[in-house]
Amino acid sequence: MTMERLSELQKIPIMELQREDLSDADEIVIDTSKSRNQRVQSFLGQMKNPFAQNVGEYILQVGYAQGTKETLDDRMVQLVRKQTAIM
Questions:
Q1: Confidence (pLDDT) at 87
Q2: Which of 19, 26, 33, 78 has the fewest CB atoms found within 10 Å of its own CB?
């Protein structure tokens, strides 16, 4: 997948996404024993659109922050903290 194609897929508004054009989350398999580059390549090879996927009856669209040093784990901890503060 080219960088140009990735850029196009990233710009699709969620309301314009079609379920049949997306991969199902439960069908994506990542071998965690592989290197990070191999895992990324495997993920991209299995995804029709790496920025959106079918998750049950929903379409999940994700974005990636550029220029941040926070990891996904850091963001998940922040999310949990926010949720517990609300409750």
A1: 59
A2: 33
